[in-house]
Design brief:
Layout: E1 2-4, E2 16-20, H1 28-43, E3 47-53, H2 58-61, H3 73-82, E4 87-91, H4 95-98, H5 102-113, E5 115-121, H6 134-139, H7 141-144, E6 147-151, E7 155-156, E8 159-160, H8 163-171, H9 175-182, E9 186-193, H10 198-201, E10 207-211, E11 221-229, E12 232-241, E13 252-257, E14 268-279, H11 286-301
Parallel strand pairs: 1-4, 2-3, 2-5, 3-4, 5-6
Antiparallel strand pairs: 7-8, 9-10, 9-14, 10-13, 11-12, 11-14, 12-13
Helix pairs in contact: 8-9
Length: about 300
């Protein structure tokens, strides 16, 4: 796979077919575009390409309303590579791009990247003030000689899948629904740091995750998770919240890892949310908390590992 972070690589030697979109979550709807662009590129002996922005456009337009991340660009590259995409371009969204008219944007792609075909979603908008749309792309086909494929919306539970809907599901604690719309479990990555170590005193030592704060957190509660440590997957019980039973203040993400007894402070782990176990509760002391944790552990022991999820 070729990854373009700046306009420095010449890929005009191939006929390129390009999928356009924000691709902020690479959910089922986004993946329908990815599958289509890979299909038509192979059919035409060309290269499949995904073009998106390195930074969210709102970082320039409205910093106060930047949505929380569902995944970072490194994670997107992993997923796109697994789906056999040939070229990924992460374009910096800057003032120059913000002011680009829809026609200038099309010309930029056609001539800069030798684009022979576009794949877009049914509601795709682009160019200055989002003035370009699917009908505008259709109107330029004869002038620039490209193919155009418009993908229909993908639905889950009779509603259109979108990144906004996935964020709302996570905020409500519906991690299973979010994962089904993403096709993969929602995942947070970060370094394991020292916490208050209260869990250790009751037989449930936890790994405290230092997560990136620009990522969305599922609703406070206890979740069955899969945690990747040194390329090995383990089952986990993850608590998101302020630990009310022991008078915690700050919001933490702490995971008790089943069948694991090694200290991993300073190591990077990935935490995938599979299913919600229960809401956050305040118990009448640590003995009652420990009894509940035993029940949570039993729940996790009887769940399967999850690497992908089908609707």
């Amino acid at each position: 796979m070729i990854i373009i972070n700046k306009d420095i690589k010449d890929i005009q030697s191939s006929n390129n077919y390009i999928a356009l979109g924000s691709f902020d979550g690479l959910h089922i709807g986004h993946l329908s575009l990815i599958h289509k662009v890979v299909e038509i590129a192979k059919k035409n002996n060309g290269k499949s390409m995904v073009f998106t922005f390195k930074n969210h456009p709102k970082t320039l337009i409205d910093k106060g309303s930047i949505p929380k991340l569902l995944m970072n660009n490194d994670r997107k590259v992993e997923i796109l590579k697994s789906h056999k995409v040939d070229i990924v371009c992460f374009q910096e969204f800057n003032l120059e791009f913000m002011k680009m008219t829809p026609k200038e944007f099309v010309e930029f792609l056609v001539f800069k990247y030798n684009v022979k075909g576009f794949v877009v979603g049914f509601n795709y908008k682009f160019g200055y003030k989002n003035l370009g749309n699917v009908n505008f792309l259709k109107s330029l086909q004869s002038e620039y000689g490209y193919e155009l494929y418009v993908m229909e919306p993908c639905t889950y539970k009779d509603e259109v899948i979108s990144s906004t809907r996935i964020r709302k599901a996570l905020e409500a604690g519906d991690v299973l629904d979010a994962s089904k719309m993403l096709s993969l479990p929602y995942t947070l990555s970060g370094e394991v740091i020292h916490g208050r170590q209260i869990g250790r005193t009751i037989g449930f030592p936890t790994a405290n995750l230092k997560y990136e704060e620009n990522f969305i957190l599922p609703k406070a509660g206890v979740y069955y998770t899969n945690i990747m440590v040194n390329n090995n997957m383990y089952k986990g019980i993850t608590s998101i919240g302020n630990n009310p039973t022991v008078d915690g203040k700050a919001i933490t993400v702490e995971t008790y890892i089943l069948d694991f007894d090694r200290k991993i402070y300073g190591e990077k782990v990935s935490l995938s949310f599979i299913k919600k176990i229960r809401d956050m509760e305040k118990f009448n002391g640590v003995d009652e908390l420990k009894s509940q944790l035993e029940r949570d552990k039993f729940f996790a022991q009887n769940e399967n590992y999850m690497s992908s999820i089908r609707i």
